[in-house]
Input
Amino acid sequence: MNSTQGAILIAMVQEVAPDNPRERFLLVRTGNLNCALPISDVVRVVRMLRTHPVPGSRSHLVGLAQYGGDPMPVLDLQVLAGGGVSNTRHHSTVILGRGRQRGHSILGLAVDEILRVVDLPISVSVGADSDLVGDTVELGGREVKVLNTRHLLLEERDDKGR
Amino acid sequence: MRSWLGPGLIVVVVLVGGGFLEATVDGAREGWFLRAFLVTGLLAVVAYVLLVHHPTRRSLRDYRALQLNYDEQCEVLGSSLDDLRHGDLVAAREPVGGLPEEMGRAVDAASRALAALIQQIQSSSVEVATAAGTVQKISSELASASSQQAAAVVEITATTEELARTAGQIASNASSQAALAAHSEIAGDEGAAALESAVSGVEAVRRHMEAIAGRADTLGSRSREIYRVLDLITEIAQETHILALNAAIEASAAGEHGERFAVVADEVRRLAERSRESVDSVRTHLDEFAGSIRGVVVATEEGTKAAHQVLEGSTHTRGAITQLRSALTDTARAAREISLATQEQGTASDQVVLTLREVSEVVQRIADGLGQYTGAAERLNQLALSIQLLTQSFRIESEHSLKHILARWTRRLRDFSGNLEAVGGVLEDLLEDCPYLELAYLVDLGGSMISFAANRDLVGDREHPGSAAVGQNYADRPWFQALSRDGRAAVTPIYESLLTDDPCFTIAVAVRNADDEMVGILGVDVNLLNWTKI
Output
């Protein structure tokens, strides 16, 4: 289900649906937002890394951190997901990356809490490449935004290309 | 003729005897006897005439002359005595020349002595009146002062009685105060004992509080250690949680080969989550426990502080009770002393009241006596005035004899002959010379007033009554009638003056011309408030 206009689709899903094709997501919380990240884009979860703010950068860029000996940009997921700047306490960082080879670009998402790994129906769309936020599903009585982290990695790559 | 009766009778007897003898006798011898009888009779007649009749006639003539002289002297003496009877001692002395020398001297001496006596009585009456006036004034002042003193004594008595009553009340109150102080002293002892017990109890509570605070502090320390352990467990749970998530990520990356590992990783994650939830639950309970401990600590601190305050207050209270007990002891003693002193004061006040009542009675008696004394002085003054009036009924050669003074002034009015202006001047001079006179007037023989003058010093600016006016007739006045009747000076009884409303009396004397004929009457009204100036 595509929704370029940001329409909200509320779907009743189950964490484990063995009979249906499923895709695995990492459920995180940042501020009041609950987001589901495709686990295929997640490299590692770690505690909040020490970041160094970049002067003149955009508001969603928390700063630069060092991970595995390489500099890594850390983004504020809440700002990226459109939740605005609110009282967030970043305790964890989700490290995203394409492929698991060394040298691939990675970036960090600063979140408040990493909840767990959930399985969502395959019908749940993560949206187009140009969209960060895809469908919104209801999980355990809470709204969960399904994110297209690929978009971030593309942008990050584009930024590196530029 | 009666002087010749004796000799004639003898001659008749002789002739009758001779005739009888001639008729009865005969002879010569009897003729001789008859002749002898006749001769003897004749001799007897002659002897009688010579020896008896002539001396008797001479004596009778002398007696008649003496009788005439005696009558004249009796008339003169009667005149003098009549003057004396009318009190005119001056006139009584005038005809003494017609009396025998010794009698004249005796009358003159008697008149002088009587005049001196009257003058002395007159001056004495003035002195008595002056003294009586002084006594009256002083006694009046003393009576007034005594009345004020009596009133003051009554006030003092009332005040002292009030003081005695107040002293009684004070004594009663002091006794009550002493009893109350004694009772309070006992209560203070009991209070001090109770306070000591309370202090001991509070001290025990404070020690218990400190022990509880120590235990709570120990619990706090233990809680902090538990917190550190919980933090460590939480840390491990979080690490485990992250580790499980990364394992799930790795299992997901492994595809189907990682399914079972993903299940394990999820169980580990759940375990970590449960551990974290348990830790949170423990932390919550521990928070509550720590909060309770902090409450206990705070409560014990407050309790300890309150116990300290109670102890401190108890210490102050103990000191205050000690001072209060001391003060109550002093108060009880002072109250007893006050009670005794006020009882003595009450007794003394009662005695003072009794004494003051006696003083009040004495003062009242003195005031009454002074009132009587004032009345006596007044009566003495009246008596002196009466004596003065009595003496003024005499005319003596004295400057204090009104009749004599007026008789002297009448000589200046002798020839007034209608010159009213001169009469008025004389009357004015008379008032100026005699300031105790309030009115002087000249009345003709018909009783009409010719002229008068009023003493402005006594009368002032008052209008003259209708009776004091020229032409007014005084013929009905007693003094006019008495003077018209016998020509002697007249003195009236005391009456109230129409001019001054003061008591006064009138003296009227005749005005005589050079021939001693009465041509008018000079009258004066004497103001009795100034009679001592006479």
Summary: Helices of chain A lie at 77-80, 149-161.
